[in-house]
Amino acid sequence: MDTKKLFVRLLLFVSVFIGTSFALAAPGWLQPELWLMAAGSDIIAPTGSVVINGGAANTNSTAVNLTVSAVDAGGAVQWMSFSNDAISWTATETYAPFKSWNLPAGDGNKAVWARFIDFSDNTSTPVPDGIFLDTVAPAAPVVTAPLISTSVSKNKTFNVSWGGAEDAAPSSGIAAYDVEVKTNSGGAWVAWQIGAPAGAAGFTGAPGNSYYFLARAHDGAGNAGPYSAAARVIVPLDQSKGIVKRVGFAGKVAKAKSNYYLGTVRYSITAGDELTYAFKGNYFALIGTKGPKLSKAVVTIDGAKKTIDAKAAKNKFRQVLMEKPLAMKKHTVKIKNLGTLRRGRFEIDGNAVGR
């Protein structure tokens, strides 16, 4: 018995002594009740409960907070003690509604047991509460998006998907994802999807910009994992933007319900027609149409020439006719229609500039 309990016992002894003296001097009809009081007739143990971290299912820390509650039908709850295994118990301490506690190390299911003691040394049946300890963050997820938005969309909106993060066992499971976006390589990261399940969402960009997306996962215990690699999406400029020189290439189609990017396309039907674009970026892709009657062209980027062929068995819209990674600086691109025999038309739908 510890010092506190010994002190209380001494107080009870004095109370019993005084109560006994009073009982001897009391009228006969009152003496039985007073004798019971003086003898300490409380034989009922307390009952109570313990709750870890407010009833949370998971935690990422061994340091937890306990909320305890106990009552004693025969008196008052005076002491409490705790255990992680219902075998080894802490020394008794004065009953209080809150207690700081440390779980044993090692991820997995954990339990904390509590027991309560009254003035008469009646001890409650131990009561437990459980929680899952998970201290390991999940791995980085995967973000999927098209490199060029026109590969999947004829407007400025495209889908970005995220998910696939793994959380090594024992695990509280993946609970949610955060997805961030920035505009062009020098932009600031901003929140886009917060606390979202694995999935996909549409994003609307502005022509001429590059958008970068990354994500991280949170598990059920609140551990945040590392960010994924960034996925870049380029929203192309329309075919009319960035032209610095044009010889021919005067044909235009503008049909909002067509399969062309933003409903427009520029074309040439004459061999030798040229169109020159100027831009600053680190990537270029020429977006155009492929089909059985479409021509060849020579594309010259900063003086380096490449012949491309837009011929295909059937019409295909918003195709990447050529692409090239570049240094981040100013560039010029010249497209010259070769006017191939019996298929002299060449269509330009846009140009994707990486920034």
Jot down its keywords.
single chain, 355 residues, mainly beta, Immunoglobulin-like, 9-stranded antiparallel sheet, 5-stranded mixed sheet, 2 helices
Characterize this entry briefly.
By secondary structure, this protein is mainly β. The protein has two helices and 24 strands.
What secondary-structure arrangement, pairings included, does this model have?
Elements: H1 3-25, H2 31-39, E1 47-52, E2 58-59, E3 63-71, E4 77-83, E5 93-94, E6 98-102, E7 108-118, E8 127-133, E9 142-144, E10 157-163, E11 174-183, E12 190-196, E13 199-204, E14 210-219, E15 231-234, E16 237-238, E17 243-247, E18 251-254, E19 264-268, E20 274-290, E21 296-301, E22 304-309, E23 316-337, E24 346-354
Parallel strand pairs: 2-8
Antiparallel strand pairs: 1-3, 3-6, 4-5, 4-7, 7-8, 9-10, 10-13, 11-12, 11-14, 14-15, 16-24, 17-20, 18-19, 19-24, 20-23, 20-24, 21-22, 21-23
Helix pairs in contact: 1-2
- Structural class given helices, strands, pairing? mainly beta
Beta-strand content estimate = over 45%
Main β sheet profile: 9 strands, antiparallel
The overall pLDDT average reads 91
CATH topology of the largest domain: Jelly Rolls
Stretches with pLDDT under 50, minimum 5 residues: 4-24, 28-39
Distance between the termini: 76 Å
Estimate the global geometry from the Cα principal axes.
rod-shaped
